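REQUEST ID: PR-0412
SUBMITTED BY: lab tech R.K.
PRIORITY: routine
TASK: structure prediction, single protein chain
INPUT:
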Amino acid sequence: MRVTAISDLHGAVEHLAAVGQGCDALLVLGDLINVLDYRTMDGILVEVFGRESVAAAAELRAQGRFDEARKAFRERVPDAAEGRARFVELARQDYERVFAALPEHSYVTFGNVDIPELLQAVKPPGIRYLDAEAVSLGGWTFGFVGGGVRTPLGIPGEVDEADYDAKFEKLGPVDVICTHMPPRLPFYAYDTVAGKFEPGSVGLIGYVQEHQPRYALFGHVHQPFLSRGGIGFTEMVNVGHFQGTGVGFTFDTPE
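STATUS: complete
OUTPUT:
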C-alpha cells in the first residue's frame, strides 16, 4: 500500500489532486489554512487586519512582545467580535477549498494554526479526521496526535502540554506516529530561513523512545536544519512544507 504524508498546506490546493492520485492513503498532518504567509505577507490575518498592521504585529511577535502585537490588531479592528467573525468566515472558505481538492482516501489531523472545531464541521464525510486515535493502513497501525503545544500566541490549534502528552498515552504502540509538531530537539525544531527555533514536543521524544515505531512523521518547521534522522530504531521524518514544495513523503507498507 502506498502512503503519502503531507503537512503545512496553508491553503495551497494546486498540487493536491496530483499527490492524491499517486497514493492509496494521503495523510494530512495539519495547518490546512493560510493564516499568514510570512514570505508574501498574505493570508487571512492580512485580509482581516491589513498588511501594515500584520507586519507590525509580526515584528512585535518576533521580539516576544505578544501583548503589544495583539494591541496592533485591536487598533485596526476595534470590534473584536467583528474581527473574529471575519476570521472564521475566511478560515471556513479556506477549509472548503482544501477539502474540495483532497481525495476521499485522506486522513487528516489538525495543526497549530488550525481551528479544530471548524475543521471538523467543514470536513466532508468521506475524509477521516483523527486525533489521539489510530487507524490500520496496509497492515500497519498509524497513530495521530493533532495540534501544537501551547505558546504565548494562544491560538486555537494549541494544546496544553499535559493534554497533548496524554494523547500519546491514549494511543499506545503504533507502527507510524503522525504529528504536526516535531520533537523538541534542536536540529528538527530549527528553521534555517526564519533563523529561529520553533516549538517542539517533549512528549513525542518520550513516545518514540518507549515504543520505537518504524516512522515518526511530522511537519510544522518549514525549512528544518534536519529533515530526516533517527531516534533509536525510529526514522524521524519532517514530511515537508507542502505550500512551498507541493510534495510530501511517500513510502510503502506491506499489504
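NOTES: The CA atoms of residues 142 and 176 lie 5 Å apart.
REVIEWED BY: pending
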